[in-house]
Amino acid sequence: MLFARSKSRRVTAAHIAVSGNGLNIGFAGDECKFSISSPGLLATHCSVGIEGPTKPSIRFSTETRGTIDCFWTPPIAGIYKIFVRYNNDQVRGSPFLCRIDNPPNQALLPRIRCSGEALKTGFLNIYNEVIIEEANPIIRGISISMDGPGQPEIRLLRNPQNHIVLYRCRVPGIYQLHIKHEGSHVSGSPFYIQVK
């Protein structure tokens, strides 16, 4: 009796899948991770290169068969390019663009306070005012965004003691006001606001 001999698939760059948050976003000084995987993957045929504001440290783990876990630590914030190649060919999606931010100051977040009736209720076609205060008179790294049924106009006035957020909506409905410090939500954010 003759048996058909199965042919093993030759792995190419087209067969490789790359996934993980460490391809897209991270914080300076923190270890980022992504995984490279495919059945029959050979670690010796795979290479990773990262370009950016400075050279990050990179280490690999091959504990799981068919998967290479890549751990890299960017020393400073900025945009990094991650190149993943197999047999010297770039895999799908390579190079990947990864945004690295400065780590949020968690100790400062509880001290940032937001106040004003406009955190709950807003009115159409006028500027509604929200005040951002912090125990230290210098506030840095504040960012504002707003989601809702319309496209609100937002202004941020920076003062030595506080910041003032002004928003004006032309469409009624429920809006979300996002107030962040260095990428992290302050206490209470996002705020849900009824605009009428």
TrEMBL record:
Keyword line: Repeat
SMART domains: IG_FLMN (SM00557)
A Pfam family per the record: Filamin
Keyword Magnesium: no
Presence of the UniProt keyword Cell membrane in the record: no
Filamin repeats, residue ranges: 8-100, 111-195
Recorded GO MF terms: actin filament binding
GO biological process: actin cytoskeleton organization
Domain of life: Eukaryota
UniProt record similarity statement: Belongs to the filamin family.
Protein name, UniProt field: Cheerio / Filamin-A/C-like protein
